[in-house]
Amino acid sequence: MDPKDIVRQGYDKVSRAYRGDTFDSEEDPYYRRCMDLLLPHLTAGSRILDLGCGCGIPAVQDLSVEHDVTGVDISPVQIERARSLVPSAEFICEDMTAIGFPPGGFDAIISLYAIIHVPLKEQPGLFRNISTWLKQDGWFLCTVGHRNWTGTEENWLGVSGVTMFWSHAAQETYEIWLTDLHFRIEGAMFIPEGNGGHTALLAQKTADNATKKPPM
User: Fold this and answer.
1) 122-130, Cβ contacts within 8 angstroms, sequence gap of 24 or more
2) Fold for domain 3-16+30-205?
3) End-to-end Cα, the chain, rounded Å
4) Which pLDDT score is estimated for 215?
5) What's the per-residue H, E or C state across 1-58?
6) pLDDT tens profile 67-109
7) The pTM is what?
8) Residue 103 in 3-state DSSP?
9) What is the dihedral of CA 13, 18, 22, 27, to 10 degrees?
10) Three-class SS of residue 158?
11) Average pLDDT over residues 30-34
12) What is the pLDDT at residue 142?
């Protein structure tokens, strides 16, 4: 099966097992810390794009209180729930690697635990698109791989018959990709999970390749 079909069908089936209609920070204690990397850089009314928004809880719901948020997700079930749970935001059911937006249309773009489901060979092109969609000096917050890995898991989240697909490079690769696209890395945070984990990266689109070593 195509990896994207695996992800689409997987999230359709585990939507509620993955995230309920409300969010308790104890479910994911790193969520607030991750968002705190970005929030100080936003001004009220910012245009924000969430790639892989899921059911809209909690990121779109939190951000839409003060900002104009558009969420994109490949799962029809997730998008249907998002439209009900966060009616103040706009939601689009689409593959994030296939959708298009006008250049410079967003002040910030986020993608939490979503790019890691995109086949690795398609990720560089996605990052180029993200750079185009952001305005100059715009902000990009994402969770990416900490180490190289591509694979699947059966009966994901304990839901019988559900397969999920992941594909990601190491943190250093993502930093190189972003730097080559004229982003400056402003922050990084390791997010442990099981025997491994992910990395949250905050980067700003700049006019040059000046880089700052991220805090670890």
Assistant:
1) 122/97, 123/167, 123/168, 123/169, 123/177, 124/177, 125/97, 126/96, 126/97, 127/177, 127/178, 127/181, 128/181, 129/97, 129/100, 130/51
2) Rossmann fold (3.40.50)
3) 38
4) 41
5) CCHHHHHHHHHHHHHHHHCCCCCCHHHCCHHHHHHHHHHHHCCCCCEEEEECCCCCCC
6) 999 999 999 999 999 999 999 999 999 999 999 999 999 999 9
7) 0.94
8) coil
9) 170
10) helix
11) 93
12) 98
**What 3-state class would DSSP assign to 108?**
strand
139 and 128 in contact (C-beta within 8 Å)? no
Per-residue pLDDT at 195: 83
Q: Which residue has the tokens 């951000």?
A: 63
**The token pair that represents 11 in the structure block:** 């999230």
Using one digit for the tens of pLDDT, what is the confidence trace for 149-171? Answer: 999 999 999 999 999 999 999 99
- Sole residue written with tokens 């009616």: 87
The whole-angstrom distance between residue 32's C-alpha and the CA centroid of its chain comes to 14
Domain boundaries, the chain: 3-16+30-205
Percentage of the chain modeled with pLDDT above 90: 90
Q: Nearest CA to 187 among 40, 53, 47?
A: 40
